[in-house]
C-alpha cells in the first residue's frame, strides 16, 4: 500500500488545533450546546485534571460518535505481551544479550506480534515500563487497539509503518520514532514489507523533553521537530473490533463503525513522531567521555527529581574529538538499569555480537562496558577527530530494575557466552606509572 505524503503539525506539547472539515472546531469554547456538523465533543485526558499546567496533557476531540458507543468487552488473549509485575522469583543480575529474531513464519498483525522482553514497576500503579519487540507482516484490517496500561514508544528497526490513529495518520520509518499516548485508539499497517522493531510501554508519567540546563534554549531534541497528525476521519459503518489492554488483560469489543471518526481536535495530548537525525548532539570538545544522559531524547520522570522512570537515549552519528581520552564508553556500574537496542550499524562499545534488531540488558549494579577488542583499540588508537557514521543505537534506562520475561531468558536467541566478551581483559598492571 502506498500512502500519499502526510501533513503534520509541528511543536512538542503545543496546544495544536486541526480540522478535517472547515469550521468543525468550535470557536472560543470547548463544549458548545451543539457542536458544528452535529459532532460530539469528547475530552481525552492523559494527565490528571489538576496536574500542574506545565505537565498537563489533554485534548478535545470532535467526533461522529462518542467513544462510549461500543459493544461490551469480552476477554481476548495475546499471551506473549506481558505486563508488570511478573510472578517471577529473583531476576538474575547476569549481563544479557540477544541476537535479532528471525522473520516470523505465521501471519502476524502488529498487536499479535508484540513479545515482551523485560518489565519493571507495576502497570496498575502507573509506575515502570515494559520493553517489547514487535514483528508484523499484515495489516490490522477493521480493528483498532488502545492501551490503558501505558504510553507506547515505537522504535522501528525494519519496515516503514502506517499508523492510523483517532488524531490522524502518521507514517514512521526506521530512524524515526513514534509515541502513542495511553488510551489512543490506533492501528498499525506495514507500508511495503514486514515490520520489526522495539516497543517501550511506559506505565509512568508521559514522556517529555529533558531540561537543557546550561546548554540553553536550543539543542538536543528541539520542540519544533516533533510532528503531530492533522485531523483525519472516516465515516464508515462496518463491523470493527476494538482491542484493548487493561491491567495486563486483553479485551475485545465490537463496534458498528470505524473508531477513526475524529473530524477535528485541539490540545496537547496526541500521537507524535520524531526523526532521530534531527537530534542536535552535544558532546565533549575537550577531553573525557561524558555521561550518556547528554543523548536523552525523551524522559518519563519518576517522583524523584533526576531519577527517571524511563529515559530514552540515542547514540547517533557524531564527531568524536576528545583528546588524551579513552573514547569508547567507560567500564561502569550503575544504579539505573540499562536496556539497549540497535537500529543501524555498529555500537562503539561492542566490536561483535550486538546486531541491529538485537538487544542487551545491564541491570542495576551489573558491571559492563567496552568489550576486550574495543578496549584494546580505544587504548592505543591515534586520537584524530573521527566521525562515527551510519550508526544508531539506543538505550532505555530506568531507575527500577528490569526483570526479563521467561520467554527472553529461555530464548535460543540469548547469547549464553555474552560475558566472554570481557574475559580477555587481563591485568596490565606492571608496577610502573
Ligand atoms: O552501557 C552502555 O553502553 C551505555 C552507555 C554509553 C555511554 O557512552 C556511557 C555510559 C553508558 O552506560
Ligand atoms: Fe552502561
From TrEMBL:
This protein's name: Homogentisate 1,2-dioxygenase
UniProt KW keywords: Dioxygenase, Iron, Metal-binding, Oxidoreductase
InterPro entries: HgmA_C, HgmA_N, Homogentis_dOase, RmlC-like_jellyroll, RmlC_Cupin_sf
The keyword RNA-binding belongs to this UniProt entry's keyword annotation: no
Domain Homogentisate 1,2-dioxygenase N-terminal: 7-276
PANTHER family to which the protein is assigned, alphabetical: HOMOGENTISATE 1,2-DIOXYGENASE (PTHR11056:SF0)
Gene3D superfamilies in UniProt: Jelly Rolls
Biological classification of the source: Bacteria, Pseudomonadati, Pseudomonadota, Gammaproteobacteria, Alteromonadales
Naturally occurring in which organism (per UniProt): Ferrimonas gelatinilytica
Family assignment from sequence similarity: Belongs to the homogentisate dioxygenase family.
The protein's required cofactors: Fe cation
Documented EC number(s): 1.13.11.5
Top-level lineage group: Bacteria
Top-level class of the enzyme under EC nomenclature: oxidoreductase
Domain Homogentisate 1,2-dioxygenase C-terminal: 277-429
Amino acid at each position: 500500500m502506498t500512502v500519499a505524503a502526510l501533513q503534520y503539525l509541528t511543536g512538542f506539547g503545543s496546544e495544536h488545533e486541526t480540522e478535517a472539515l472547515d469550521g468543525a472546531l468550535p470557536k472560543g469554547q470547548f463544549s458548545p450546546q451543539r457542536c458544528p456538523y452535529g459532532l460530539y465533543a469528547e475530552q481525552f485526558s492523559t494527565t490528571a485534571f489538576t496536574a500542574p499546567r506545565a505537565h498537563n496533557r489533554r485534548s478535545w476531540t470532535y467526533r461522529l460518535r462518542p467513544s462510549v458507543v461500543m459493544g461490551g468487552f469480552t476477554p481476548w488473549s495475546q499471551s506473549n505481551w506481558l505486563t508488570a509485575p511478573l510472578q517471577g522469583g529473583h531476576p538474575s543480575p547476569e549481563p544479557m544479550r540477544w541476537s535479532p529474531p528471525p522473520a516470523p513464519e505465521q501471519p502476524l498483525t502488529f498487536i499479535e506480534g508484540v513479545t515482551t522482553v523485560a518489565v519493571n514497576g507495576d502497570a496498575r500503579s502507573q509506575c515502570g515500563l515494559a520493553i517489547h519487540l514487535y514483528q508484523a507482516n499484515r495489516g490490522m484490517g477493521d480493528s483498532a487497539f488502545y492501551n490503558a496500561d501505558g504510553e507506547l514508544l515505537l522504535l522501528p528497526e525494519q519496515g516503514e509503518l502506517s499508523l492510523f490513529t483517532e488524531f490522524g495518520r502518521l507514517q514512521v520509518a526506521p530512524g524515526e520514532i513514534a509515541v502513542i499516548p495511553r488510551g489512543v485508539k490506533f492501528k498499525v499497517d506495514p507500508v511495503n514489507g514486514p515490520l520489526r522493531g522495539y516497543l517501550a510501554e511506559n506505565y509512568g508519567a508521559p514522556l517529555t523533553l529533558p531540561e537543557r540546563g546550561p546548554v540553553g534554549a536550543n539543542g538536543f531534541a528541539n520542540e519544533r521537530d516533533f510532528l503531530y497528525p492533522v485531523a483525519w476521519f472516516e465515516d464508515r459503518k462496518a463491523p470493527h473490533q476494538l482491542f484493548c489492554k487493561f491491567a495486563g488483560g486483553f479485551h475485545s469489543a465490537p463496534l458498528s463503525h470505524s473508531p477513526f471518526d475524529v473530524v477535528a481536535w485541539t490540545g496537547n495530548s496526541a500521537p507524535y513522531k520524531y526523526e532521530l537525525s534531527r537530534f542536535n548532539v552535544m558532546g565533549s570538545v575537550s577531553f573525557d567521555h561524558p555521561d550518556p544522559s547528554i543523548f536523552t531524547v525523551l524522559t518519563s520522570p519518576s517522583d524523584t527529581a533526576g531519577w527517571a522512570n524511563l529515559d530514552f537515549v540515542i547514540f547517533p552519528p557524531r564527531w568524536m574529538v576528545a583528546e588524551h581520552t579513552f573514547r569508547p564508553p567507560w567500564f561502569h556500574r550503575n544504579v539505573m538499569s540499562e536496556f539497549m537496542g540497535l537500529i543501524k550499524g555498529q555500537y562503539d562499545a561492542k566490536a561483535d555480537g550486538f546486531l541491529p534488531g538485537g538487544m542487551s540488558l545491564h541491570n542495576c549494579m551489573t558491571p559492563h562496558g567496552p568489550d576486550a577488542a574495543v578496549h584494546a583499540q580505544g587504548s592505543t588508537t591515534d586520537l584524530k577527530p573521527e566521525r562515527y557514521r551510519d550508526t544508531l543505537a539506543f538505550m532505555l534506562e530506568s531507575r527500577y530494575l528490569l526483570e526479563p520475561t521467561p520467554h527472553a531468558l529461555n530464548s535460543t536467541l540469548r547469547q549464553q557466552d555474552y560475558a566472554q566478551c570481557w574475559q580477555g581483559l587481563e591485568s596490565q598492571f606492571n608496577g610502573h606509572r
